[in-house]
Amino acid sequence: MKALVLLAFAGIVASLGSALVAMMRGDSASGDARRSRRMARALTMRIGLSVLLFLLLIVSHWMGWIQPTGLPVR
Question: What residue ranges are annotated as transmembrane (predicted)?
């Protein structure tokens, strides 16, 4: 489970980096729309991966695959 969470987190960071590269690259007016689409697609993927990771953690806790290790609840 740790490997899956780390892999999802790496995908989220890579998608954010891809959006940064798309934002910083190119100065031509014709490439501006294409750059905006690439950046929007990368940010949309990051949001999707984040939601998927959150749902995976909720389902994993519900199924008993992971256990909380924080402070005990009184």
Answer: 43-65
